[in-house]
Design a protein that fits this description.
The structure is a homodimer. Chain A is an alpha/beta fold. Chain A has 2 domains: 192 residues, Rossmann fold (3-Layer(aba) Sandwich), CATH 3.40.50.1100; 91 residues, 3-Layer(aba) Sandwich (Rossmann fold). Chain A is built from 13 helices and 10 strands. In chain A, strand 4, helix 6 and strand 5 form a beta-alpha-beta unit. In chain A, helix 3 runs parallel beside helix 5. The radius of gyration of chain A is 18 Å and the shape is globular. Chain A starts with a helix and ends in a 15-residue tail after the last strand. Chains A and B meet through helix 12 of A and helix 12 of B.
Amino acid sequence: MTVTLAHIQRAAERIKPYAHRTPVMTNESLNERVGARVYLKCENLQKVGAFKFRGACNAVYSLSDDEAKHGVCTHSSGNHAQALALAAKMRGIPAHIVMPNNAPQVKKDAVAGYGGRITFCEPTLEARENTLERIRLNTGANVVHPYNDERVIAGQGTASLELLADSPDLDAIIAPVGGGGLLSGTSIAAKGLKPGIRVLGAEPEMADDAQRSLKEGRIVPSVNPKTIADGLLTSLGSLTFPILQQNVEQIVAVSEQGIVDAMKFIWERAKIVIEPSSAVAVAVLWEKKIDLSGLKVGVILSGGNVDLGKLPWGGK
Amino acid sequence: MTVTLAHIQRAAERIKPYAHRTPVMTNESLNERVGARVYLKCENLQKVGAFKFRGACNAVYSLSDDEAKHGVCTHSSGNHAQALALAAKMRGIPAHIVMPNNAPQVKKDAVAGYGGRITFCEPTLEARENTLERIRLNTGANVVHPYNDERVIAGQGTASLELLADSPDLDAIIAPVGGGGLLSGTSIAAKGLKPGIRVLGAEPEMADDAQRSLKEGRIVPSVNPKTIADGLLTSLGSLTFPILQQNVEQIVAVSEQGIVDAMKFIWERAKIVIEPSSAVAVAVLWEKKIDLSGLKVGVILSGGNVDLGKLPWGGK
């Protein structure tokens, strides 16, 4: 199986009763500043504050009743963990979440708040994978990977189905890329509906493994990335890499300053709270690293989960 | 003339081509926290980031062409100044704005950015009124008071027309009160459409002049109020006071801590940027100073203009 437009359309039907159809916002100040007409798909207003709910919800509701009764499991300390916990809670099944024992308290609380059953482990990839495997064997829970999972990719693509239904004449669409689940789903939906549309990925210069992967024709791992965009630290997966190779025109890398400036501008002018990973996609326009002047450009604002006590601009 | 529902309905038609029809948002976490079903009317997403654009726009477009050619004028250093400047710019007429010479640079820049012609004066009420009167005599500009003006009151009421069109079965509606323009318009619209609806005002305990005015049956001036809600420092006006006496069930005063907590909760959970004055209305529910449990409550989020460098919670 490879993910197709039809999968994304079925995912959209499947998650419709549970996920928000998020609004598309426009902002004249932003348009003037970047010289394009920008359509912001507000996944920061999605359930759990991030697009991740779409993929997790599609995975949970794709299970047969027999499969579902054993629950789902994943390892994640981020938005995917919260998303999977909430989707499982909605279906009334357990969600087992493996988290590193050094995860911030606020993230532990969030997952627990959605009813996730947390198992802590040492903060290494090996420990996380071993712990997850043990839980899978003990419970029979279905593993839902944060991005390297076809059900998840199809779910993430539903944001662009909605965006293109609301704004059908977009010339280009930009999504941030970490593991590549969102950008994969975005590209399949967008190219499927509109073959001529330009699909661009956005990532921090400080975590430019996706850009290098596409250039080198192999998955270049992300090694110790240091960026404010903490949702984009992961490497591409075996499923997402070939999808991006096929569909994505270019991965554009943006500076840390560009991310912060774009984020602050959106807060100040559009009056919405976006997280740094969302701002990465806006920063492609902000820094004008690629010529999109005069075009209609969709931007997926991936989420709005930030620690208000640690903002990347001067405090009081 | 006194302002009626019909005036507000005409104002709505008049400003329709220029103002945003703002969304109404709901948030499950907020509902759970306050024990009511809350409908947030997002005037933070209005042009210039505040409901003030509605009143200013209605005033500007109420003028005949003959009147309009002399422009408009006001004294204000807040959202009304920006709103009037933008509305005048849209109509292609001058806006003369009197501002105290100690106004923050960011506010001067904002007014100038919308094309307002600024005249600075000493930061006293007498100097502001004298300067405004001189400008009026010299230019023939029409004075548009920030709240004690029937055109402005009618314009502000249009937010509630939209809110009740989108959510017709509200039991109550809460708006913040400073000079009383928003609450006056809100109350006339709401009571006009739905006589049984409860209309509540919200103000800071540290600036509770409206509450005291209604209790004492006379306009009690606001004297040196110290509150984070800097949009609510003014006293009621001769037009707004009797409207509130007639329509408003109660003015509820909230604590500074309640304002900050409600504001932070809305940013964190609803992912929208609201200013402290907006949070005052949310805080009525937050602090449960009045029993609204189980009811459907509309809340006018008055605006979203904040200095991101001076947030009222711990910095990084």
